[in-house]
UniProtKB/TrEMBL annotation, chain A:
It comes from the Bacteria. The lineage of its organism: Bacteria, Bacillati, Actinomycetota, Actinomycetes, Pseudonocardiales. PANTHER family: ARABINOSE-BINDING PROTEIN-RELATED, DIACETYLCHITOBIOSE BINDING PROTEIN DASA. Coiled coil: none annotated. InterPro entries: Bact_solute-bd_prot1, SBP. Keywords: Sugar transport, Transport. Gene3D superfamilies: Periplasmic binding protein-like II. It holds the Pfam family SBP_bac_8. It comes from Actinoalloteichus hymeniacidonis. This is ABC-type sugar transport system, periplasmic component.
UniProtKB/TrEMBL annotation, chain B:
Pfam families: BPD_transp_1. This is Carbohydrate ABC transporter membrane protein 1, CUT1 family. Its main location: membrane. SUPFAM superfamilies: MetI-like (SSF161098). It comes from Actinoalloteichus hymeniacidonis. The lineage of its organism: Bacteria, Bacillati, Actinomycetota, Actinomycetes, Pseudonocardiales. It is found in: Cell membrane.
Length: 424, 302
């Protein structure tokens, strides 16, 4: 009996081994079928609402089953690194668009170029996102969601402060003038707010102000910083003055991103740059009537940070055909309308234009998306998003530190450069 | 002939016994080998290679160790960790000893107090950190309001917002979390001191302080040594409390050695650098414990 069991087991193991070999060596095996598969998908919490809507709609079709795992933003890199080290990445892996280059460099994604070439998608998708997921001519991921940085302002407070609620600020100095007028209301109301201890919040909102007036943050290949005291200097100085004058609450210096949108959502902040995907999360109420407008530079130019996520198939996935079935489905026009634009989000397709019936906020989103930029750098995360990285130290020193802004820029720029340098 | 026979038999028995010993210790050896020696060897090997997340590692020798010494974050973290260890160990030992003396005698309420002091130790460190994170938050936490009501402060305390505030707030939480645990250890040491010794001291007319310095502390020394070793080792490896409470901030002022290893491995994806850092920390810990234990032994001989 014992031996019999052992024999059975041995047989099963051998059969499994043979099957595995057959599947990996054969061109078309069962495991590579387009339908009837169970796929795993990881995304960070920032994209949960949108990704879940995609997954639920897709699962209802019955072609494949996608199992969604949502990972907290702050631990996404850790989870991905651990999974990659243990060869257990999911079939579909989302990435903050600014991390795409790094994920590609570590070999997490498989090349989608041939599959994309069979479609007309390459002409229709947000070019900045496509570009961010390209390396050496290969296309490793496709746009999944767009998150744009814009000025959000509270029309209720604008009216109370005697400002015109239909006239959002047309330059950064004007935004701070509005903030000053609203601060004067007192009673726990602040003119503006920002994530003073949140590297991602700061870059997402401050960089478009630099781009708006023609300045650059990074060199084109993303291996060095292009910030100087003429481009980012006046912007940091404006924030420094605003904080010193008390236009933002003192807690802004400790805001690490966790409660970044809370004060505005509660209706206690007049005007501040935030992200377009947050609109869903902030229901209007008696004290909050939201207006959105493009982020402006010192001289009034407009720009936006095109953030959001890209989605790709991992290099370790054995179900690429089914994964592609899901991926290409999410990008079709109907699905984009059904899942994204109907919920107030921007489509990742450029051919879906707003119509007369479109919500005015969404219309503003569409207006700025073409002006927007996706900065790319292999070491983006380590340099800019990491709370221990050089960008947060730099921005905090400039806004809250004892030294003048120019001195801080001169002192910190070499640290940014060495962190960005891929060879170093 | 007879003696040879006995000798033979004796030797065979001892051979049997040593074979038996080897066989019996095999499971333990296997566990130690699998769970300790193999990972350690892998760690050392990892630290001497360029180890990508996906793909084949390549040997680079001691290059990673060279690079560590040029990393200002790691070097700053070493100083911060040493400072934190010193502060925590001194305060924690003092508080734990105070609590142990307080509940040493079995009298009305001492059982309740012992339980109350020990309860935080039953909580995970990460959970305790989260609890205190909420307590320190001026948005949701009651601490600042409480102090203001008592008239101790005029405006909300910026608990975690300044470098000093972040350090001392963390130390306070750690003392709350661990003092009861060390109190129990010290209590067992205290109760092992025979009553006769105290009686003799009393008859000789020794006061409380004289008894404490002349009898309690010397006889408690082995237990105190254990507490010191535990506290120093634990503090040198501090991670969760700072990860949850301060995230290394503000301005990188509370980055510990283990935080930098974690960042190197999981934020920067640089596994081999993190492995080299771990080896350095391991060697430092082994040395620190050798020094501490040898000091304790030296004390025992005198």
């Amino acid at each position: 009996m014992r031996e019999n069991t052992f024999g059975h087991r041995l047989g099963a193991v051998l059969a499994a081994a043979l099957l595995t070999t057959a599947c990996t060596s054969g061109d078309v095996g069962d495991a590579d079928a387009e339908t009837g598969q169970t796929l795993t998908l990881w995304t960070r919490a920032a994209t949960e609402a949108q990704t879940r809507a995609f997954v639920d709609t897709y699962n209802d079709l019955g072609r494949n089953t996608v199992e969604l795992t949502v990972v907290p933003n702050d631990t996404y890199l850790q989870q991905v690194a651990t999974a990659a080290g243990g060869r257990s990445l999911p079939d579909l892996l989302g990435a903050d668009v600014v991390y795409a280059r790094n994920f590609i460099r570590h070999g997490f994604y498989t090349d989608l170029g041939d599959r994309l070439a069979e479609t007309d998608l390459l002409d229709e998708l947000a070019p900045a996102h496509l570009d961010a997921a390209t390396a050496d001519g290969a296309q490793y991921a496709v746009p999944h969601t767009l998150d744009l940085s814009l000025i959000f302002y509270n029309k209720v407070l604008y009216r109370e402060a005697g400002l015109d609620p239909e006239r959002p600020p047309t330059s950064l100095p004007e935004m701070m003038e509005h903030a000053e007028a609203i601060s004067a209301l007192g009673d726990g109301i602040s003119g503006t707010y920002f994530g003073g201890n949140c590297p991602g919040c700061l870059l997402f909102t401050l960089w478009p102000m630099v781009w708006a007036d023609g300045g650059e943050i990074l060199t084109p290949d993303g291996t060095a910083s292009a910030m100087d005291s003429e481009t980012i200097g006046p912007i940091l100085q404006t924030y420094r003055d605003a904080y010193a004058e008390g236009l933002a609450p003192e807690s802004a210096a400790q805001e690490n991103g966790i409660s970044w949108l809370q004060p505005f959502a509660q209706g206690t902040v007049g005007v501040a740059p935030l992200g377009s995907t947050m609109l869903r999360l902030m229901p209007e109420h008696e004290g909050l009537e939201i207006g959105v407008a493009p982020i402006r530079g010192m001289d009034g130019g407009e720009s936006t940070f095109v953030g959001g996520d890209v989605l790709g198939i991992t290099a370790t996935s054995t179900k690429t055909a089914a994964a592609w079935d899901f991926l290409s489905w999410t990008l079709t026009e109907d699905v984009q309308r059904e899942v994204l634009t109907s919920g107030g989000d921007v489509s990742v397709r450029t051919d879906i234009a707003p119509t007369d019936g479109t919500d005015p906020h969404l219309r503003t989103f569409h207006q700025v998306v073409d002006l927007g930029r996706v900065p790319t750098a292999v070491n983006f995360g380590a340099t800019f998003n990491d709370p221990q990285g050089p960008w947060l130290q730099f921005a905090r020193a400039a806004i809250f530190g004892p030294d003048p802004v120019d001195t801080t820029i001169a002192e910190h720029r070499p640290r940014l450069d060495s962190a960005l340098d891929v060879a170093g | 002939m007879r003696s040879t026979g006995t000798h033979h038999r004796h030797r065979r028995r001892s051979t049997d016994r040593s074979t038996q010993a080897i066989v019996l210790s095999l499971p333990a050896a296997l566990v130690v080998g699998l769970l300790f020696v193999v990972p350690l060897a892998l760690l050392v090997w990892m630290s001497m290679t360029d180890w990508p997340l996906l793909g084949e590692p390549s040997f680079v020798g001691l290059a990673q160790y060279d690079a560590i010494l040029d990393d200002p974050l790691f070097l700053d973290a070493i100083w911060f960790t040493l400072r934190y260890t010193l502060i925590t160990t001194v305060l924690l030992t003092a508080v734990a000893l105070g609590l142990a003396l307080l509940v040493q005698q079995t009298r009305f309420g001492s059982g309740f107090l012992r339980t109350a002091f020990f309860l935080p130790a039953a909580m995970g460190l990460a959970v305790a950190s989260l609890l205190w994170f909420a307590l320190y938050s001026n948005e949701v936490g009651p601490l600042s309001d409480l102090l203001a009501t008592l008239g101790l402060v005029d405006e909300p305390v910026n608990w975690l917002g300044t470098p000093d505030g972040a350090l001392w707030s963390t130390v306070l939480m750690v003392i709350w979390r661990f003092a009861g645990f060390y109190m129990i250890i010290l209590l067992t040491g205290l109760q092992a001191i025979p009553d006769q010794v105290y009686e003799a001291a009393r008859i000789d007319g020794a006061g409380w302080w004289r008894t404490f310095t002349g009898i309690t502390v010397p006889l408690l020394r082995p237990t105190l040594a254990l507490v010191l070793v535990l506290s120093v080792t634990g503090s040198l490896l501090a991670f969760e409390q700072f990860y949850v409470l301060t995230g290394g901030g503000p301005d990188n002022s509370t980055v510990t050695v283990v935080s930098t290893i974690f960042r190197q491995a999981f934020t920067l994806f640089d596994l081999s650098w993190a492995a080299a850092m771990s080896v350095v920390v391991l060697i430092a810990l082994v040395l620190a414990n050798i020094v501490q234990l040898s000091l304790i032994r030296k004390g025992d001989e005198s």
